[in-house]
Amino acid sequence: MADSPMRINALIVDATDPERLAAFWSEVLGRPVVGRTGPYVWLRRENGLGLGFQRSDAPKPVKNRMHFDVTSPHPAAEQQRVEALGGRRLEGYDAGGFLVMADPEGNEFCVIPEGPFELDDEGRAGYLA
């Protein structure tokens, strides 16, 4: 048994169209597509973490149980760029104060400010105000 803890090597996102989803996230994150293997499309590995998109014919049935938080110096301004790339803002999250978006296949993610921001006792943010 190894003495070192396990580490996350890569995040894999199921996709009905992995090329399209990889292209979207490539633009959002500024990480170019660097490989294709079987049903996978890979973005450039950064900080030791890989990001891949795997072909899956199963539709996304419900809300994600895990999502990405991506940072930006200006989250509200980033919304327009994400929408121009094929993403959309999700309704129903305004009360939480987070900018919750979805990629072209409906996978949720939050655009949060760089650096610390305040949360109230209910876990609501206020950085969009």
Describe the structure.
- With 129 residues, the protein is an alpha/beta fold.
- The protein has two domains: 1-56, Signal recognition particle alu RNA binding heterodimer, srp9/1 (2-Layer Sandwich); 66-129, 2,3-Dihydroxybiphenyl 1,2-Dioxygenase, domain 1 (Roll).
- The chain is 17% helix and 33% strand.
- The protein is built from two helices and eight strands, in the order E-H-E-E-E-E-H-E-E-E.
- The protein has helices at 18-29, 75-84, and strands at residues 10-15, 33-37, 40-46, 49-55, 68-72, 88-89, 99-102, 108-113.
- The strands form two sheets. It has a four-stranded mixed β-sheet, covered by helices on one side. Strands 5-8-7-6 form a four-stranded mixed β-sheet, with helices on one face.
- Strand 2 and strand 3 form a beta hairpin.
- It is globular, with a radius of gyration of 16 Å.
- The mean pLDDT is 91.
Overall morphology: globular
Helix content: 10-25%
The overall pLDDT average reads 91
CATH class of the largest domain: Alpha Beta
Low-confidence stretches: none
Strand content: 25-35%
Predict the CATH topology of the largest domain.
Answer: 2,3-Dihydroxybiphenyl 1,2-Dioxygenase, domain 1
Would you list the SSEs in sequence order as H and E? Answer: EHEEEEHEEE
Q: Tell me the Rg in angstroms.
A: 16 Å
Number of helices: 2
Count of individual beta strands: 8
Any idea what the CATH architecture of the largest domain is? Roll
What would you call the quaternary organization?
single chain
Structural class assignment: alpha/beta
Main β-sheet, spatial strand arrangement: 1-4-3-2
Distance between the termini: 50 Å
The main pleated sheet reads as: 4 strands, mixed
For the record, the count of structural domains works out to 2
- CATH homologous superfamily of the largest domain, by name? 2,3-Dihydroxybiphenyl 1,2-Dioxygenase, domain 1
